[in-house]
Amino acid sequence: MSGAVPFRNLSTSDFLRRFGHQAQTSQFRAVLQVGTLPFTKDYNPQGGRFYDDLSFLCNSTSLPGSSFSTTENLQDYYGVNQKYAYRRDFDDLSLDFYVDAQYQTLKFFEQWMDYISSPATYSVVTDSDPSSEIAFYRFKYPREQGGYKCRIDLHKFDKDYDKTKNDILYSFVNAFPRSLSSMPVSYDGSGLLKCSVTFAFDRYFVNRAGSVQSANDTEDTTTPVNNPSASGPSDTKATEGRDDYKKQPKAGYDFLDPTLDKSTKATLAREDAIIKAAEERERQEAADARTLQQGGSIKTEDGGSFSFDM
Hints:
Layout: H1 12-19, E1 28-32, H2 50-57, E2 58-61, E3 66-73, E4 82-90, E5 93-98, H3 104-117, E6 150-157, H4 161-164, E7 167-180, E8 194-200, E9 203-207, H5 244-247, H6 262-293, E10 298-299, E11 305-306
Antiparallel strand pairs: 1-6, 2-5, 3-4, 5-8, 6-7, 7-8, 7-9, 10-11
């Protein structure tokens, strides 16, 4: 019969065999590849792996979702509204962390956000007193001084993973903290302090093969693998990470791609010059701000001078 829905009886044993084991919510691991951030060396300086600490302290998250932006077509068929996808949109990633007794977790994310919105010393441009009334912020370029973005890997599995190897791995490209939520404290019944961090990222992709590399401290980290997130950096330094940009020499722009043509290299060189000029302006403005704060005068662009006493 046209349109008939097939019906099938399942025995109890068949049902349990096919549907008796469902995925659970309580087994996962979030790995932040923070070894490329220049200030990570300030955490676990004894040679430990700070990304491991963050991974164990992450107590909840959400598997990511995405959607398509669509456009409508009303012209092809009379009375029919057709839609076509033209862009994939991704939800932000939220991770909740327990705060350790040394407040390292909280200090790390605060410093990460300070690094994004401030110059070299992760402080305000005045470089001396963050409480100054004339203090202000400058935001870094995404790849300036090593960049402020990293990859985040979210590995979802079940407690029988050692036997079944069933899992799914999400890799978030160019992630950085977009917001750090407020954390209420009170003199009522004590509980564990947790911080919630929302990350923005360019996109994510899914490793459907489910082949996770086991930890191996002798592995050569200069050779990329399909899934480096499970083992993390193989050497004992917490700050090495797996960023190929950091592994390569920074002489010129050949380290990006040896086959770059001259025009591309020239474009990159101009961009580098613009960044350096911006950094020089920041240093000069910081020096002018200190001079004004100390009661001195600075030169203006028209050749005159300016001070707060004028």
